[in-house]
Specification:
The structure holds 3 protein chains of 3 kinds.
Chain A: E1 4-6, E2 9-11, H1 24-44, H2 52-72, H3 80-114, H4 138-151, H5 158-162, H6 174-181
Antiparallel strand pairs in A: 1-2
Helix pairs in contact in A: 1-2
Chain B: H1 27-62, H2 64-71, H3 76-101, H4 105-135, H5 157-190, H6 200-225
Helix pairs in contact in B: 1-2, 1-5, 1-6, 3-4, 3-6, 4-5, 5-6
Chain C: H1 25-29, H2 34-62, H3 73-109, H4 117-139, H5 153-156, H6 161-188, H7 201-233, H8 246-279, H9 287-300, H10 316-344, H11 353-376, H12 378-384, H13 388-418, E1 420-421, H14 424-450, H15 465-495, E2 497-498, H16 536-541
Antiparallel strand pairs in C: 1-2
The chains are: A mainly alpha, B mainly alpha, C mainly alpha.
Bound molecules: protoporphyrin IX containing FE and copper (II) ion.
The site of copper (II) ion has 4 residues of chain C, from α8.
Chain lengths: 182, 227, 547
């Protein structure tokens, strides 16, 4: 075979595989950076940054993700079309998030203004810890509640498996449990 | 997909290379096709997970206090350890690809074993996390019963745990699939199917594994850390 | 012919066609040949077209009188749901890409096969499993949510929602795999000289479709997964009783499903581009405009989904934005229609069956597309939403557009696929019946809807009776036309004349190979030197050469 074609174009050195092989130092540096960044988010999560904490965490996550994509997944050295596919995907995710959030945000503002709010409000049921729904469908809420009671502590598989049996119930000391959770 | 075109072992890259499927003209074309296919597949994965991330963000928007309170019940340490484990596994996987680029099958197999090991640790930690949640009744949706176990979380925590289990569960399934694929690659590498000129299956396995890591990089702060 | 050098089969009789190169049932069941898979898809989608078509006729017949005839309200709900769900997920979405696309894409690119033949086989079986799930859903407790599965009804109804959505979920994966395969095929499998400007427009259309399939379908998958989980565990994402937001479900669903309507129509556009230019023997007008408008439609289709939520409680602000963006889709769509009409202008048109379908499409699709505009006008949609106007709109685009194009394409490539010619007169009779039946059925529904007849009701006020009866009679004519078409096509398989390799004088690569093609498509890899639309005869006589 004289000539070889790829993508409809002749290929000069068809049999050569030219893949980029990164030196060990690159991989070591990247994993080092990833660990450092992980430590950073972890540490920052103990500080009280308030609403900024989401932004900080996301920025760090994006940096980490970019490192993985660029060096571990070789996108930096790869066919540019793969980069295009990847970034294109991110853009479509952005569209999906953007429009949906936009609607839900602007809808809430409107609902609040017109006092036609139908979503469950946290404050009204505060403290009851009940998994209940919107306020204007009491029957359904009653149904859900009944279902929860019926499932009670007895189901879910977690009990038997962890060896506590079904005996432990509401009577257990809250504080003790809260502590045990962490 | 990563295994679409590998058949028998071979050594040389002429036109009758046994790795070359009949409908391709060159190895280059075949490799390029496999890699593009993998990237497109990753795109679908990202979009699929994006739905869950969106659900999470919307939940935060609807019920911010509840999410903040409920997420305190996830173990930061377990999440943190798993992050380190998964990052390490990505590193070893990347080194595995590098080894086979240099033609070192032995080292490739070693790296695969290390990666699988990390994946298993991840799953074990997940198992303990899950059992704790089960035990405390912190279950999705209508199975939520933490208040019967003495945990009072204001609002609608059953949604939070629903989303938590969906996200980590789907991610966990991906980890498990990744482990199976790597095991298989390990076997195939043992049969001598890969060499410095034919390793696209390993590369694609790596891409998949890194994606699983990528998703965790976002899951971890969102579910465990963010205030 | 300027396209290929190896245009004359050097050894025509020596190699058997793909139909007979291997024999036995097994050779079909495990085939990785894209042409055989195309035929297998064709048979499957036709089967589901028939099933869902029978359901449709049942619906229309029930509506012949204002009162209940032979279906209860509950049965009616189940029948229209299954009609919609099967038509959309098992027929239209796979129809053109998986059946015709599979068959033609490698041929048109001059390739031996798609990039991942085994994946192709896999996606066929994934599709079959999905079909089984949907059939099980029908046979157990049915499904009455409408094809859109809106919450909270879908989380509370007693019917087989989980089985059905699992089926659709699986069908989605089949669609993703096909799309992925096609994108890679177009990128990596083109024959020497086949650059982007020399690809047939059908390939461009299938490519754009494949991109949407890859980008949108995963969101359908996660939506349905969340719905299944919502229904089984009640996590409270979508169900308001559990604290969720039902409109959120609609966002998720339409983020997929609006692009999906372009998954349905874009391949139809591709077929029409081929039919119009080949049968008018004239270079396509505005090649680049048509090709790029496919891509533009693919992209824009992702930012308009909110037009399905105008009256669902979406915020007014979002409604206005989505309304505006929806109008934008009209632009690339109109570019295509104008280009097709301009292609016909001064062409030497061969009025045969495929061309008749092409012309029928120009009318029906345009009506469908234009009626989309009033629907995308926020204020007007408040009146028209959930009426028969919407029903008529989407049937004009989906049946009048996609199905008409699909049948036209089937006639255009039938000689290539089967090696047999069908009877042209029979074909024209069929086309006429389909065209008349279709318009009688659905044109009336625009009026019905405009007068306020809501969709999805088994009974109605007597005032609407006349138009409902006209519509029902139309549906019978349409069904007769389709059955007629089925009969003469099947007949041609046994009694048809042997087809020449290029019956219509096309210039794209699929006409270079014999009919039906050999297993590896071409004896030698073709080399492409020019456009797929340079028709030599007309260049000399008509003097309307384009390059
Ligand atoms: C020219 C561009 C188009 C425009 C501007 C347009 C606009 C619209 C609008 C605004 C609606 C919502 C009506 C309502 O529910 O109140 C709608 C519904 C619909 N359209 Fe289109 N459309 C266009 C083309 C198409 C095409 C090409 C298809 C499919 C091949 C399609 C399929 C549908 C379907 C299936 C529905 C109804 C879905 C349902 O509620 O069940 N449309 N269209
Ligand atoms: Cu739409």
């Amino acid at each position: 075979m004289a000539k070889v074609f790829l993508n409809g174009q002749p290929v000069e050195h068809a049999h050569e595989v030219h893949e980029h092989i990164s030196p060990m130092s690159t991989y070591n540096a990247v994993i080092g950076a990833l660990f450092v960044l992980t430590g950073l988010t972890f540490a920052v999560s103990f500080a009280d940054l308030g609403p900024a904490s989401l932004t900080v965490a996301m920025v760090v996550a994006f940096i980490k993700a970019s490192l993985v994509v660029a060096y571990f997944m070789h996108l930096k050295y790869d066919d540019k079309y793969h980069l295009f596919v990847f970034l294109g995907t991110i853009i479509f995710v952005g569209i999906f998030f953007g429009f949906t959030m936009f609607d839900l945000k602007s809808r809430d503002a409107l609902n609040d203004e017109q006092e036609t709010f139908v979503r469950w409000k946290e404050m009204e049921n505060a403290g009851k810890g009940l998994a209940v729904g919107v306020d204007n469908v009491p029957e359904r809420r009653a149904k859900v509640l009944a279902e929860i009671e019926a499932h009670g502590g007895g189901h879910g598989g977690g009990h038997g498996e962890a060896g506590h049996g079904g005996g432990e119930h509401k009577t257990d000391a809250k504080a003790e449990h809260k502590a045990a959770a962490h | 997909m990563s295994n679409e075109h590998a058949h028998a072992p071979a050594h040389d890259d002429d036109e009758h290379n046994p790795h070359l499927a009949h409908h391709f003209d060159t190895m280059g074309q075949q490799t390029a096709a496999a890699k593009l296919g993998m990237w497109l597949f990753l795109a679908t994965e990202i979009l699929m997970f994006s739905g869950l991330f969106l659900a999470y963000f919307i939940l935060r928007m609807f019920y911010p206090e509840m999410v903040l309170e409920a997420h305190e019940y996830l173990s930061k340490w377990a999440g943190g350890i798993n992050t380190v484990v998964l990052l390490t596994s990505s590193y070893t996987m990347a080194l595995g690809v590098r080894s086979i680029q240099l033609g070192d099958v032995k080292k490739l197999r070693l790296m695969l074993v290390l990666t699988i090991l990390c994946g298993c640790i991840f799953m074990v930690v997940k198992y303990f996390e899950y059992s704790a949640k089960f035990e405390h009744g912190m279950l999705p949706g209508k199975f939520y019963s933490a208040h019967l176990h003495g945990y009072e979380i204001d609002g609608l925590p059953h949604i939070f745990f629903g989303v938590y289990f969906m996200m980590t569960g789907l991610h966990g399934i991906h980890v498990a699939i990744g482990l199976a694929i790597m095991l298989w690659m390990f076997v195939r590498a043992g049969r001598g199917e890969f060499n410095a000129k034919n390793y696209v299956a390993i590369e694609n396995t790596g891409l998949y594994w890194h994606l699983v890591d990528l998703i965790w990089i976002f899951l971890f702060p969102l579910l465990y850390l963010v205030k | 012919m300027s396209t290929a050098v190896q245009s004359h089969d050097p050894h025509p009789a020596t190699e058997p066609s793909y139909l007979v190169s291997k024999r036995g049932l097994m050779s079909w069941l495990v085939t990785v040949d894209h042409k055989r898979l195309g035929l297998m898809y064709l048979a499957s989608v036709m089967f589901f077209f028939l099933i869902a078509g029978i359901l449709a006729i049942a619906l229309r017949t029930e509506l012949f009188t204002p009162d209940q005839d032979f279906m209860s309200a509950q049965t009616y709900n189940q029948v229209f749901t299954l009609h919609g769900a099967i038509m959309v997920f098992l027929f239209i979405i796979p129809s053109v890409p998986a059946a015709l696309g599979n068959f033609l894409l490698p041929l048109m690119l001059g390739a031996k096969d798609v990039a991942f033949p085994r994946l192709n086989l896999l996606s066929f079986y994934v599709y079959s499993v999905a079909a089984v799930f949907l059939i099980v859903a029908i046979l157990t407790s049915g499904l009455d949510t409408g094809w859109t599965f809106y919450t909270p009804y879908s989380t509370s109804t007693g019917t087989a929602v989980i089985t059905a959505t699992t089926g659709v979920f699986i069908a989605g994966f089949s669609s993703i795999l096909t799309g992925l395969n096609f994108v890679v095929t177009v990128h990596k499998m083109r024959a020497p000289g086949m650059n982007w400007n020399r690809m047939p427009l059908f390939v461009w259309a299938i490519y754009s479709t494949a991109v949407i399939q890859v980008l949108a379908t995963p969101v359908l998958a996660i939506t349905l997964l969340l719905l299944i989980i919502e229904r089984s565990l009640g996590i409270g994402i979508f169900d308001p009783a559990m604290g969720g937001d039902p409109v959120l479900f609609q966002h998720f669903f339409w983020f997929y499903s609006h692009p999906a309507v372009y998954i349905m129509i874009l391949p139809g556009f591709g077929i029409i581009s081929e039919i119009i230019t080949v049968h008018s023997r004239k270079h396509i007008f505005g090649y680049k405009a048509i090709a790029l408008s496919s891509v533009a439609i693919a992209v824009i289709s992702f930012v308009v989904w909110g037009h399905h939520l105008f009256v669902s409680g979406q915020s007014e602000l979002a409604g206005v934005l989505f309304s505006f963006l929806t109008f934008a889709v009209g632009v690339p769509t109109a570019i295509k229609v104008f280009s097709w009409v301009a292609t016909l202008y001064k062409g030497s048109i061969q009025y045969n069956t495929a061309c008749w379908y092409g012309m029928a499409f120009l009318w029906t699709f345009t009506v469908g597309g234009l009626t989309g505009l009033p629907l995308s006008t926020l204020a007007i949609d408040v009146h028209l939403h959930d009426t028969y106007f919407v029903v008529a709109h989407f049937h004009y685009v989906m049946v009048g557009g996609t199905v008409v194009a699909f049948i036209g394409g089937l006639h255009h490539w039938w000689p290539k696929m089967t090696g047999k010619m069908f009877n042209e007169t029979a074909g024209k009779i069929g086309c006429l019946l389909v065209f008349i039946g279709f318009n009688v059925t659905f044109m009336t529904q625009f009026f019905l809807g405009h007068q306020g007849m809501p969709r999805r009701y088994y009974a109605y006020l007597p005032e609407y009776q006349t138009m409902h009866q006209v519509s029902t009679i139309g549906s019978w004519i349409l069904a007769a036309g389709l059955l007629w078409t089925l009969i003469y096509l099947v007949h041609s398989l046994f009694k048809g004349e042997k087809a020449p390799s290029n019956p219509w004088g096309g210039v794209s690569l699929e006409w270079e190979t014999q009919s039906p093609p050999i297993e590896h498509n071409f004896h030698d890899t073709p080399h492409v030197h020019g456009s797929p639309y340079d028709f030599p005869e007309i260049d000399k006589s008509g003097g309307s050469a384009h390059h």
